[in-house]
Write a structure and sequence with these properties.
The structure holds 2 protein chains of 2 kinds. Chain A is α/β, with parallel strands linked by helices. Chain A has a single domain, classed as 3-Layer(aba) Sandwich (Rossmann fold). Chain A has helices at about 75-100, 115-120, 135-145, 145-155, 190-200, 220-230, 250-255, 280-295, 325-330, 335-345, 350-375, 400-410, and strands at about 130, 210-215, 235-240, 245, 250, 270-275, 300-305. In chain A, strands 1-2-3-7-6 form a 5-stranded parallel beta sheet, with helices on both faces. In chain A, helix 4 crosses helix 11 (about 350-375). Chain B has 12 helices and 14 strands. Chain B has helices spanning about 5-20, 45-50, 60-70, 90-100, 100-105, 135-140, 150-165, 230-240, 255-265, 280-295, 315-320, 325-335, and strands at about 1-5, 25-30, 55, 75-80, 115-120, 145, 170-175, 200, 215, 220-225, 245-250, 250-255, 270-275, 305. A 7-stranded mixed beta sheet of chain B has the order 3-2-4-5-7-6-12, with helices on both faces. Chain B has a 5-stranded mixed beta sheet with strand order 9-11-10-13-14, sandwiched between helices. Classes of the chains: A alpha/beta, B alpha/beta.
Chain lengths: ~425, ~350
């Protein structure tokens, strides 16, 4: 921000482009050469201060992987990552369409952000507890949770493991290291710190990894998390997924302009990394670094995943009302699936035909799983969950006043 | 048996559980080396180690937040909020997270944590060290809110709270820490050492929540009270010369409505006491439940005696506090004598 007078004026930041504008983001296209060096994961916190201001990138736009952050991933691992991202996208597309047909109340896609969840999960152990938001379904896909069970949760049907208690996408899969997603934003960062402290207390080498969007970093909970993670050197990774948009508010509303979200960690004495979130290999490398640091007792790392939300916030949102319609296409960091695909082709481990075939295969597999899921009912069909289950799991045991309310409810039927 | 005041009983409960169960961790502002501003955790760090009893940043949201994560990960955290007046930054973590985690995950995760916090006035703490916010918590599904009135209950109920598999808010009436308080600040205070409820068994015992304690058996009216007001009720009933059935509720949610309605059906009259502000206070809930359960047994309207609907004042502390005079007026009203 430039100061235009010597008098204070109320300043309200605005995004550079609104509907009708021609978006031009050439000024933030950071070349891969600007990637900061990879320090030892047990380095001092201040040694990553510059990493909070730069951007870790591995994949060049020609498909080449370069620099000292290139992770040691086999072609099979990368193909697995590619497929998990494609499955995530195929599922999102299917569920979005089914929501439009009235099969479920709500849905949230993660298009454009699949690398953040899939590559992150790949660099963790399955027993590392993640505290995701509603846009990390890729963690579940990567870890092999049942896609049918995920769909049944969204459909609130007889196969819903949560028995209709939560809105779609707010999954809970303890066995897959996926903490129950809260719809209250930012709250889970500090809980992840507590989880990590418990791991350390038990002398385990498990770690926790928590997510928030950039918008909810403005919540106090985010700052509690940074503070406690620093004080107790908790084995956690605190991830800010900066996808540029919090519903309709651009990232400058949450942070002010000219700041990075990773730099929030510097003042707390945390290790800080800022990574190209559309670069599968960079996300993997940054996560691997932070996980090793946490596991070896080096404490917490704040990672900003710099990415772009290609779709609306949810099925209830219409992004054309507040940003240029073609902004997702001109976003200079490309698409995470396209970029990993190009890399695999570049190293001779993939080709266009195989990619097209896999895209079709994912679509078919998702369609078939969805058909099976829908057989168990939808929110609008008569095969929903039993209404009486709403009284269960409020407490471990039904207390007297709820028993009385169950009896009153019976009279309504 | 040992003679203990309420602070010692609370400390003893923590000590018993920390000794029995290595998953029990105690933390909060100033609770570690120093032992807490009310001394409830004095000596626990020295005895059980730095990892078991430690200081936290001044961040109630953070304190509750880490307690949730620890509890979900198998520990039994006991967090202290230094004064209930400071609990509000942690309110979202309590109301939206701890209380709902079991529900929203359909039992896959839960938050068996205990939050201890001193409540109530009587120490010239003014607006920021005197509040009784229980009604803000009894409105939350998934949370239990309890409040002991004496050392015996404090120890047994705190052990129950720590062993409970759901989150429990454990409110400590700070005016009762050293002895029962009968509502007159000018009378020298009595010590728990001279009271039978200051006799606290050694080792492990529990007091169940949903179990009112009958302080006194009477036929004239029922007085429902909790925390400090239990003792004010006893003194006021004596001074008013009535035979009151005085019920110490112990737990507000869950509530032992069965014992309450049995008593009101017997006496036909009900007086409800609390120190908190009146409007939408927990007395409103009690009044509604008693009316629903006992309407045809009532011989007079239910009467509430409470703090005023003002912030807790400093210099006017005893004008705010629902002391014996206000309670006696309430007794006369419900007895049809006023």
């Amino acid at each position: 921000m430039t100061k235009k007078s010597n008098q204070s004026r109320l300043y309200v930041p605005e995004p550079p482009f609104r509907p009708g504008d021609t978006p031009d983001y050439s000024h933030i296209a950071v070349p891969v050469d600007h990637t900061p060096p990879r320090p030892d994961p047990m380095c001092e916190d201040h040694e990553t201060a510059e990493h909070a201001l730069k951007l870790i990138r591995v994949l060049r736009f020609n498909g080449e992987a370069a620099g000292d952050w290139v992770p040691k991933l086999t072609p099979d691992q990368m193909r697995k990552g590619l497929r998990d991202m494609m499955m995530t996208r195929a599922m999102d597309d299917r569920m979005f369409n089914m929501q439009r047909q009235g099969k479920m109340s709500f849905y949230m896609k993660s298009r454009g952000e699949e690398a953040v969840s899939v590559a992150h999960a790949m660099a963790l152990r399955i027993d590392d507890m993640t505290f995701p938001t509603y846009r990390q379904q890729g963690i579940l896909i990567h870890r092999g949770a049942s896609i049918k069970e995920m769909m049944c949760q969204c459909l609130s049907n007889a196969g819903d493991r949560l028995q209709g208690k939560s809105i779609p996408v707010l999954y809970s899969f303890r066995d897959f290291g996926f903490f129950s997603v809260s719809g209250n934003l930012g709250t889970q960062m500090i809980q992840a710190v507590g989880w990590g402290m418990a791991e350390a207390y038990k002398n385990s080498d498990g770690i926790a990894s928590a997510f928030t969007g950039e918008g909810a970093t403005a919540e106090g909970d985010f700052h509690y998390a940074l503070n406690f993670a620093s004080t107790y050197r908790a084995p956690v990774i605190l991830n800010v997924v900066n996808n540029q948009w919090a519903i309709s508010s651009f990232q400058g509303i949450a942070a002010g302009e000219g700041e990075t979200f990773a730099a929030r960690g510097t003042g707390f004495g945390l290790a800080t990394l800022r990574v190209d979130g559309n670069d599968f290999l960079a996300v993997y490398a940054a996560t691997e670094w932070a996980a090793e640091r946490a596991r070896r007792g080096g404490g917490a790392t704040l990672i900003e995943h710099f990415t772009y939300r290609k779709e609306g916030h949810s099925t209830s949102d219409d992004p054309s009302k507040y940003r240029p319609e073609n902004e997702p296409e001109v976003w200079p960091f490309g698409d995470p699936i396209d970029r990993l695909k190009l890399h695999l082709i570049h190293i001779g481990e993939w080709d266009e035909d195989r990619h097209a075939a896999q895209e079709e295969a994912c679509k078919v597999e998702i369609r078939n799983i969805y058909k099976e899921a829908e057989k168990m009912g939808t929110l609008s069909s008569d095969t929903q969950v039993n209404d009486f289950t709403m009284f269960e799991q409020v407490y471990e045991e039904l207390p007297g006043h709820l028993k009385a309310q169950v009896e009153v409810f019976k009279e309504e039927l | 048996m040992a003679r203990m005041n309420m602070i010692e009983a609370i400390r003893d409960a923590l000590d018993v559980k920390m000794t029995e169960d290595s998953n029990v961790l105690v933390f909060g502002e100033d609770v570690g080396y120093f032992g807490g501003v009310f001394r409830a955790t004095a000596g626990l760090q020295e005895k059980h180690g730095l990892h078991r009893c430690f200081d936290t940043p001044i961040s109630e949201g953070g304190i509750v937040g880490i307690a949730i994560g620890m509890a979900a990960n198998g520990l039994r955290p006991v967090a202290e909020i230094q004064f209930a007046d400071y609990i509000y930054p942690g309110y979202d973590q309590i109301a939206s997270e701890a209380a709902r985690l079991r529900y929203r995950s359909n039992g896959e995760f839960s938050a068996p944590l205990t939050i201890r916090t001193p409540v109530g006035g009587g120490i010239y703490g003014g607006t920021t060290h005197s509040q009784s916010p229980e009604a803000l918590f009894t409105h939350i599904a998934g949370l239990k809110t309890v409040i002991p009135s004496n050392p015996y209950d404090a120890k047994g109920m705190l052990i129950t709270a720590i062993e409970d598999n759901d989150p429990v808010l454990f409110l400590e009436p700070k005016r009762l820490y050293n002895g029962p308080f009968y509502g007159d600040p000018h009378t020298p205070s009595v010590s728990w050492a001279k009271h039978e409820l200051g006799e606290v068994p050694e080792g492990h015992y529990t007091v169940p929540f949903e179990s009112v304690r009958k302080l006194k058996e009477g036929e004239d009216l029922t007085i429902l009270a909790y925390g400090t007001m239990v003792w004010v009720a006893e003194a006021a009933a004596k001074e008013a010369g009535v035979n009151a059935d005085i019920l110490d509720l112990r737990s507000l949610l869950p509530l032992d409505i069965k014992a309450i309605s049995e008593s009101v059906k017997k006496t036909g009259r009900c007086l409800i006491l609390h120190e908190a502000t009146r409007t939408s206070g927990f007395g409103a809930e009690l009044s509604a439940q008693v009316a629903e359960a006992c309407f045809f047994s009532l011989e007079a309207p239910i009467v509430r005696v409470t703090g005023w609907d003002t912030p807790y004042p400093h210099a006017q502390e005893w004008a705010y506090f629902p002391g014996p005079k206000r309670v006696i007026n309430g007794i006369r009203k419900v007895m049809g004598q006023a």
